[in-house]
Write a structure and sequence with these properties.
The complex is a heterodimer. Chain A is an alpha/beta fold. In chain A, about 50% of the residues lie in helices and about 15% in strands. The chains are: A alpha/beta, B alpha/beta.
Chain lengths: ~290, ~300
């Protein structure tokens, strides 16, 4: 599993302020923390950057590259900022993200070709977010065809099926799992990637990590290649790096079996089982799913 | 070869909730199959049909829905008796509209006294409804529970912000409650889980909130339907509560109902009947003719 740390994000007050003040210290701390936790890429989310887009992204890229050689994943909806950042990246970067919308085809996808970066390509298109696995397949095939015309090989494409919060619609979570299993046939050579934290949006703050970690174990089993994750979650890294095999096999059991005997399990393992059951659509989600 | 229709058997049932006391007491829920699936399972209790009255003369009810009650609307006891004696209501729904803090702001003690007067005057089960202002309802419904101890009222709406106080009082004084979560099965489940930590599940009815025909009725339909399916098909214990649909208030708000008597009656009847088909166990109605129409439809 390729892990992309998400914490250099303008949504964080610390990072937002650091960008405003051009203060490298907080950024360095965030880089070091995520690097220490074993992230393979660092996502730099500078938002839509209305003011000085190019200069802002350049500063971020330079600051981060000043203290690490982990490759970068540039995250902005502003093509000017994206291009400026890609120019500065020393290692092969990831462009996060393009989609099947006409605007994205015109402004974002060509940048990946021009700078030889990887391309995160979401299944969103001009009609919005596809509602099930088949519609996702239809949308991504069209985008792949277009990317092929631009000369971007499947090997450079990271497909983002778009993960929706489990509290909004459990069926979308199931559609996600169904779709990632289709990717090797739809796009041989391409990878799958997702914004993992979106899964737990709206859930109680102290339980979000549990949802995210359990889901990552589930989709790893279905062939997920990469995920944008909380870069400071050490347990998440241990889970997907083979350091918690018993918990992983317990989650697999919860996926396969209708009922898992909870007696004799630690409280933490019981929580993983209950969470897996909710994510597999076996029980209706509620914010108090652990209390049942 | 003879054809045999495939039948579903569900190993569980919707909980049966008892309303009221004495001879006129009745139950709702208790079915072990989907709505009107008589060929598949048992539906021991026909849907409850309640007529709505208010604790104060309504200010904005449309003429066609006021007309059947005449002067009785100025006194909740007269109005309630009229509903029961003249129009055959088997359940009465008393909306404590005057307790609205933005309106008359009637004190909890006065409201509770009104409820007691109505409860003493009619024998049928009584649903008592606040204004969905959490703090005020916590006072009004708690006081009502105390004053009417032992009458097995159905108190609502019990919301996320006041379920502790209201459910505790209901438990202490022997009443059932309606847990309300707006148009969301996940939130319905969450509130039920919270309640069931100290409150008996067989005294809970759920209200996913309702919308009228033409104003989002299909959303209510889907939610009621999915609550029942989660409960029966997926055997989710926290989703096996009977469902209430507050139909009249929503229908008689619409322009279509207000502009024409016949249209209004049909609007309310169609909305109510639709919710019964989705799986509602208790309808709150305003027009007596609608009560008759729906009763006729479901008995045929």
């Amino acid at each position: 599993m390729i892990l992309i740390g998400e914490d250099l994000n303008v949504m964080s007050k610390t990072i937002s302020q650091a960008i405003k003040d051009r203060d490298p210290e907080p950024v360095k701390q965030y880089v070091e923390g995520q690097a220490k936790n074993g992230m393979d890429y660092l996502d730099l989310n500078v938002g839509p950057v209305k003011k000085a887009p190019a200069e802002t992204m350049e500063w971020m890229v330079d600051t981060v590259q000043g203290c690490t050689d982990i490759p970068l994943c540039l995250d902005t909806t502003n093509p000017e900022a994206m291009e400026a950042g890609l120019k500065r990246c020393k290692k092969k970067a990831l462009l996060n993200s393009a989609s099947g919308t006409e605007e994205s085809r015109q402004t974002m996808m060509p940048l990946a070709k021009k700078y030889g970066s990887g391309l995160v390509l979401s299944v969103i298109n001009d009609t919005g977010l596809p509602s099930d696995a088949d519609e996702r397949a239809g949308s991504i095939l069209e985008s792949l065809e277009y990317a092929g015309e631009l000369g971007i090989p499947n090997e450079d494409i990271w497909i983002d099926p778009v993960l929706m919060p489990v509290g909004v619609d459990q069926r979308q979570v199931l559609a996600y799992m169904e779709f990632i299993q289709m990717i090797p046939d739809l796009a041989p050579g391409a990878k799958s990637v997702c914004g993992l934290s979106n899964l737990s949006y709206g859930a109680p703050k102290e339980l979000r990590g549990l949802l995210n970690r359990t889901f990552l174990v589930i989709i790893a089993r279905y062939g997920q290649d990469a995920a944008i994750v909380s870069g400071f979650d050490a347990e998440l890294v241990r889970l997907v790096r083979g350091e918690m095999p018993e918990t992983v096999s317990l989650i697999h059991r919860a996926m396969d079996e209708d009922d898992v005997d909870l007696s004799g399990l630690s409280k933490e393992d019981q929580a993983y089982v209950k969470t897996a059951q909710v994510l597999m659509g076996k029980t209706l989600y509620s914010n108090s799913w652990l209390e049942v | 070869m003879t054809f045999e229709a495939p039948l579903e058997k569900y190993a569980v049932k919707i909980r049966e909730v008892a309303l009221g006391t004495g001879e006129k007491a009745r139950n709702i829920g208790g079915e072990d199959t989907l709505p009107f699936h008589f060929f598949e399972g048992a539906l021991p209790n026909p849907p409850g049909l309640a007529l709505e009255i208010m604790d104060t003369a309504p200010r904005n009810w449309a003429a066609p829905v006021l007309e059947p009650f005449g002067d009785a609307v100025s006194d909740p006891v007269d109005w309630g008796k009229r509903c029961v004696d003249d129009f055959g209501a088997e359940i009465l729904f008393l909306r404590l509209a005057s307790t609205d803090p933005l309106g008359e702001d009637t004190a909890a003690a006065d409201a509770a006294e009104t409820v007691a007067r109505v409860a003493d005057a009619v024998q049928v089960p009584l649903v008592v409804w606040g204004t969905a202002v959490e703090d005020k309802d916590a006072e009004v419904l708690v006081e009502t529970a105390r004053v009417c101890a032992g009458k097995n009222l159905l108190l609502g709406p019990v919301l996320k912000g006041n379920y502790m106080e209201v459910a505790q009082a209901a438990l202490e004084h022997g009443h059932a409650i309606v847990a309300q979560a707006s148009m969301d099965a996940n939130l319905t489940k969450e509130l039920n889980i919270a309640l069931c930590k100290f409150f008996p599940p067989e005294k809970i009815v759920v209200d996913p909130t309702s919308s009228a025909l033409g104003y989002g009725m299909e959303y209510t339909f889907s939610i009621i339907e999915s609550i029942k399916q989660f409960g029966l098909v997926d055997k989710d214990k926290m989703m096996q509560m009977p469902v209430l649909a507050d139909v009249g208030v929503e229908c008689w708000r619409t322009r279509e109902a207000r502009e024409n008597r016949e249209q209004g009656i049909l609007w309310e009847a169609i909305t109510g009947m639709t919710f019964l088909l989705a799986g509602a166990n208790l309808l709150i109605l305003r027009h007596p003719e609608v009560l008759g129409l729906i009763r006729k439809m479901i008995s045929e």
